[in-house]
Write a structure and sequence with these properties.
single chain, alpha/beta, Metallo-beta-lactamase, Chain A, 6-stranded mixed β-sheet, globular, RibonucZ/Hydroxyglut_hydro, Metallo-beta-lactamase domain-containing protein, membrane, Metallo-B-lactamas
């Protein structure tokens, strides 16, 4: 009887295992199908460098054992958060998204139609996307017009606000500068939409493989290592664009961590100088940037997505102020905040902490509303517009 009982139980257990495996297989299949369909057939993950591009990468002193490194030896984030960070992520009570709509410039295209009187104008279009007009040239940085900073169209960080300027209303630009290949800085749909404009893309080493996969002609892709430079225009009226150090990392998938480089950008015109940080932690290399190329009329440093767990590869407000001083900046316009929730802090914490720190250190800030063109050498735009968002939400809740 005992043997009969056990023998009768085995088929039942086998049936349960088959059912469980079937469910898991179905889930994996559905997940694979969703991944395929929502990432444009995996196109958004980009491509790996090979051939002549890979040889150029290998020639870099920062390319070691198949990956790029930070020359200052910064500790890179691990593949997953530690338990304390994960608990904060799941159960933290921070207001990580705005409670109401963000104020924006009403007619950005009309404002941009007027020429900058000083020859230098910057328009913050959200996150790290800026239109920089400098001495007759228009430069676009890290353009992202997509709804999500993600390889997927249905999952991932979603925008707090629409782009203040529709992409088809963007004026013609002379160059697109890319800092690295993370999704909130290198956005495949936006890159594809810019291809018909015949603009040249300037990127750190290896990133051109992604661009060419998405339809950018090879002759319109220029990749630079740190301290290398190119020029737009000729003679005394030219604009020098220098790839300068940053302390970060790269990767778009599970197996390509640091397979491409990352960079900040220095723009040197005949009359004005601008620094764009991309994503970075604090590094002494900024002092060298200041010695070689400063002072800068305006710097655009990242201040959002900061946390002690990744403090070596993101600045946060206090370190952004230090970096601004190191490169010898005159005015700081904060970027990399106010568009996506990419960290654990409140959505407006970067701006609040930055303004408090700037008052203590005597740093001049530019904090225009989204889409408002500002001329750093001739006007102030340091109103705390983000505080009105909370006020409006509280007022709306009142009886």
């Amino acid at each position: 009887m005992r043997d009969a009982f056990l023998g009768g139980g085995r088929p039942k257990r086998r049936g349960l295992w088959r059912y469980a495996l079937g469910v898991m297989g179905l889930g994996a299949g559905v997940g694979a199908l969703l991944t395929w369909t929502t990432t444009d057939g995996l196109q958004s993950f980009g491509a790996r460098a090979d051939g002549a591009r890979l040889e150029r990468m290998k020639a870099s002193s920062r390319y070691q054992a198949g990956i790029f490194i930070n020359t200052a030896g910064a500790r890179l984030p691990q593949n997953g958060p530690d338990w304390g960070t994960l608990k904060e992520m799941l159960f933290g009570t921070q207001q990580r998204t705005p409670p109401s709509a963000l104020p924006m410039e009403r007619d950005v295209a009309a404002a941009l139609a007027k020429q900058p009187e000083s020859g230098l104008r910057v328009t913050w279009l959200g996150h790290s996307t800026l239109l920089v007009e400098i001495d007759g040239f228009r430069i676009l940085t890290d353009p992202i017009w997509s709804e999500r900073a993600s390889p997927s169209t249905i999952a991932g960080p979603k925008r707090f606000h629409p782009p203040p300027l529709p992409l088809d209303a963007l004026p013609e630009v002379d160059a697109v500068l890319l800092s690295h290949d993370h999704y909130d800085h290198l956005d495949m749909p936006t890159i594809r939409a810019l291809v018909p404009r015949q603009v040249t893309f300037y990127a750190p080493l290896g990133v051109g493989a992604h661009l060419e996969k998405w339809g950018v002609p090879a002759e319109r892709v220029v990749e630079l290592d740190w301290w290398q430079e190119v020029s737009l225009g000729e003679g005394e009226g030219r604009l020098r664009m220098v790839a300068t150090p940053a302390q970060h990392f790269s990767g778009r998938g599970l197996t390509d961590r640091n397979s491409t480089s990352w960079t900040s950008w220095t723009l040197l015109g005949p009359r004005h100088r601008v620094f764009f940080s991309g994503d970075t932690g604090l590094t002494e290399e900024f002092a060298e940037v200041g010695r070689r190329f400063g002072p800068f009329d305006v710097t655009m440093f990242e201040v959002g997505a900061f946390h002690p767990s990744w403090g070596s590869i993101h600045l946060g407000p206090q370190q952004a102020l230090k970096a601004h001083e190191m490169v010898r900046g005159r005015t700081l316009l904060p970027i990399h905040w106010g568009t996506f929730s990419l960290a654990l802090h409140a959505w407006d914490a970067p701006a609040n902490e930055l303004t408090a720190g700037a008052r203590e250190r005597g740093v001049s800030l530019l904090t225009p509303v989204l889409g408002r063109p500002v001329e750093p050498t001739r006007e102030r735009a340091d109103t705390a517009w983000w505080s009105t968002v909370q006020t409006a939400a509280v007022a709306g809740d009142a009886p």
